[in-house]
Task: inverse folding
């Protein structure tokens, strides 16, 4: 079987497939992983940000996120989410999930907090990159979902993300870059 791809069709193939076909490289040579050096840099960045924001402010964000989770409308999943977002100017925006019977229309807590910042004029006052930190209170203390990571990335290149349970116990502190490496963001497009 002689396999030939017309040039216009080749341009539609993802770079990994194109490289593997045209350069005859094994796909295993094209595997991308987070560089350990980048992880070390993120740890240093997080340590500086935690110190800059301060333990008192972080604990305050966690308490607000837990309180906000109690306002969640989650009759279907029984999975309340509360969020407290710290903006560059020091203003805090709150959000929680609000479910719909057709789950695809559900508002996520992180999305809700980011939207609160946008509709309050934070982009006009601080610019597109207004998010400094988010405390997210979940039933299991999990991290923001992929959709929310993309929404957060629209308004910062990196931020501190504090994951806690519904009682306020911090489960992890990480960064957006750790949760969403190699993301496509406005910065990728030159904005």
Result:
């Amino acid at each position: 079987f002689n396999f030939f791809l017309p040039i216009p069709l080749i341009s539609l193939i993802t770079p990994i497939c194109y490289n593997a076909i045209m350069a005859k490289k094994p796909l295993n040579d094209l595997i991308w992983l987070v560089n350990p050096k980048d992880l070390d840099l993120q740890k240093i960045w997080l340590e500086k940000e935690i110190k800059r924001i301060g333990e008192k402010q972080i604990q305050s964000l966690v308490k607000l996120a837990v309180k906000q989770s109690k306002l969640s409308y989650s009759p279907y999943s029984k999975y309340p989410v509360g969020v407290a977002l710290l903006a560059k100017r020091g203003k805090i925006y709150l959000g929680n999930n609000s479910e719909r019977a057709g789950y695809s229309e559900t508002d996520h807590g992180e999305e809700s907090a980011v939207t609160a910042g946008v509709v309050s004029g934070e982009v006009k006052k601080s610019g597109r990159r207004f998010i400094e930190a988010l405390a997210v209170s979940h039933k299991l203390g999990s991290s923001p979902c992929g959709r929310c990571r993309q929404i957060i990335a629209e308004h910062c290149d990196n931020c501190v993300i504090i994951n806690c349970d519904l009682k306020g116990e911090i489960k992890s502190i990480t960064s957006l870059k750790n949760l969403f490496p190699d993301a496509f963001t406005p910065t990728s497009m030159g904005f």
Confidence is low (pLDDT under 50) at residues 1-13.
